[in-house]
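Data card: per-record layout.
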Amino acid sequence: MSYRTQSDGRRAASDYLRQLLLKPGAYRHAWERNVVRARQGTINQLAVSDVLATYLSGASEQAAAVLPHQLKDTVSRALSGRLLSKPALELFIAAFGFTAEEADRLRKLWLGSGSIRVLSGSHAVPPQAERSIHDALGPRRHQTLTMHDHVYVDGEGRIARARTMQVIEASVPQTDRIPYLYDTSSLTVEAGEGCAGLSGELRQLGDDVFATEILLAKPLGLGETTAVEYTTTFRYPGNLEDQCERQYRRGALGSLENFDLRIEFHPGRLPAGVWWATWDGVDGPLLTEEPVLLDSLNAAQRYLRSLQRTVVGFHWSW
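The structure for this 318-residue chain is written out next.
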């Protein structure tokens, strides 16, 4: 294994570790209960150190003298990605009680496995747009556990529709809706399984960005999950040389786990090339790209374990 692969793997493990600790639920509660005033999107390192020290104190009598501040440097290096050692990783796994699947994922990432991808960026939308979303829709009420986007490009070479399937978990009691953001290319949204329809109230968040809400078939209690499905059809102006008509992006405002994106092309209109890519926000430039091959069904597909505050997708040429 090369040093670069090893280093990239440990940074990826660090990214995933941060996401686990920030995700609403038992792990976040374990350290947040030691914080007088938590800051949104920020992990209190001393509070995390306290969880690790408490675990060590209970696991070994000799470790009873370990104090939280003695572990703060270890926590800082681990969560920043500067140095996540194998013993530190195992300590986090044991102290927070990560599930067997999460622990296995962390270990594989740490070893530099190429089969698991964790993407993390600085933002998915500009800060002012994120504030607009919060002002318009209020605090986030759910966490997405899985998301599948199946996109179809028609025989004229235009994105015709996207079918989205999502499993969500309520992070507050009586969660009865989820936000739906769209741009001016969206034509219709058809609510399907798990949905009661759309709220009907439209809010403009930017020049080309609007928001509404998808109503759930039934309100969810704290920690309850449900599956929802909806289909978006599009109306693009028709200039196939326009870059916006040759790409499909998905942005994660916070964290998004288990994301699957599949784009299928009409057999009579196959692209000359297709690339998997990341962008610097919804309006930002291309950051990375890699060519992909279509399968026997004329589709390209990519699965990611986790996304955080970033934008990913496919773009293609004719």
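Known properties of this structure: Residues 127-317 form a domain with the Immunoglobulin-like fold (CATH 2.60.40). The chain has two domains: 3-114, 127-317.

See the next section for split statistics.
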